[in-house]
Amino acid sequence: MPVITFSFRDLVSLTGKELPADELASLIPMMGADFHHYDEGTDEMGIEFFPDRPDMYSVEGIARSLRTFIGIEKGLKHYEVTESGITMKVEASIGPVRPFVVAGVVRGLTITDTMIRSLMEVQEKIHLTAGRKRMKVSIGIHDLDKVEPPFTYTAVKPEDVSFVPLGKTEPMNLAEILQRHEKGTDYAYILEGKERYPIIFDKNGEVLSFPPIINGVLTTVTEETKDVFIDVTGTDANAISGVLNIVSTLLAERGGKIQSVRLTGSVHTTTPNLNPVKWELDPDYCNSILGLNLTNQEMATCLEKMGYDAKPDGMIIEVHSPSTRMDLLHQIDLVEDVAKGYGYARFGKSRPHVQAIGAERPIERASDLVRHLMIGYDYYEVTTLTLSSQKEQFEEMRLPTEEVVEIMNPISEDHTCLRVHLLPSLLAVLRKSKHRDLPQRIFEVGDVLKGPDRRKHLAALAVHPKASFTEMKSLVEGVMRDLVVSYTIAASSNPMYIDGRGADLLVDERPIGHFGEMHPEVIANNELGYPVISFEIDLDTALKGRMQRLV
Known about the structure:
This protein is α+β, with helices and mostly antiparallel strands. It has four domains: about 5-70, Phenylalanyl-tRNA Synthetase, Chain B, domain 1 (2-Layer Sandwich); about 80-270, Phenylalanyl-tRNA Synthetase, Chain B, domain 3 (3-Layer(bba) Sandwich), CATH 3.50.40; about 275-325 and about 330-345, Phenylalanyl-tRNA Synthetase, Chain B, domain 1 (2-Layer Sandwich); about 360-550, BirA Bifunctional Protein, domain 2, CATH 3.30.930.10. The chain has 17 helices and 27 strands. The longest helix is centred in the first third of the chain and has 16 residues, at about 115-130.
């Protein structure tokens, strides 16, 4: 979870009330965070937040929440937004690359070193969490006086545009930035496979930003900066809007005046939109969840303490939430804030009504026994990631594609889904160990996902010059005998095996696994140069109804 570090005296100044450090340390957990550290000598304080609260990833956001929590202010903080007269044209070419953008202006700032550090930290923390390492959201903050509106957000060929990026002194084109700049090499994967890259120009063709990679040195924010232009780009329209609201209100907490930017071209809207979001809270639902008997007015008061506007309206409570609260999805989120506003310490203590003793599930105890059996057969246990890829699971194994649970924002092309087979993961281990002596014999007892169901599988591989179908058949027969499972063997048409050298394992006439000699194409796909034999068994199905007897 992100730890936000800042000056304790700066927090006290922004809060508007003298708070001893030890008092603040006791308040923070009541707000749903964790007090991390305080160094009196350096005045540095750290608070750890859950990733769902990016509105509190800055000392300004923490101070805003504290003011309502301790009663200095009441309810929702409202910010005035005036028109800047600035426009940004969003060209259609950007659609296939990085389709969404919002922007805003904040004027009249007095920039200090402390404020610059706060801005840098909030950018870093949001990029890492809500921004999914800049894949989903990236932020650019610019000295507005160094450029001339209107601005243009477009897509260009990598070699067609050059500028001096932050941290460098010489111009580089976009392709060179991805190859030679530190941020470029870190985030080049986001633009992998794209023929054009996103760019933001001003009226005179000066580059503000190459999102999501790096800003231009021209618009660097310094202590002389008075007015800033903020751009937020990404792949999720709601996420970038919420982040713009967070950054612009953060600057408003420092005395800045927020102004809007009109987007034209392929979109027509004005941002930022700081209008509160309307919710309805069912008091009976809230009390049933919390085990309390609060009145509607008491619930509204609790929500005001957490920075909402709230008032009873007949049988419901009408709630208005800040535009910076990106974490609110359901009224259960409001219930959580009612609990915080009520006070965790006031819930008291009670003994549990039911006594229960934890115990391993039968399949886990059976899995431990299976591990001991495989070690006894002179196989080494390995543990691999449940994350895999469609290429590894199907293409390299010569298997037909199945439905898998896909990862929405994978960090690499090797981790795009949850695995449905163990053997591809074991082959990856052999591929990385091919410089070791032979024979190599490994196994794993691990989870796979078949549709929505998690299953426990056992798989094993052996590689050496004399590996044969007979060797693996003997191992499978020994394992099934030791597990006291009645089975039959049938010829298999599984394409991962050499034709005529693969077999299916049946229990009660149902297939529960397979074994055999790997097809040469599978071996070549995994860069191995010797025969490979394998088996994989669905333990959940094989041991169904037999686990109690087994363990």
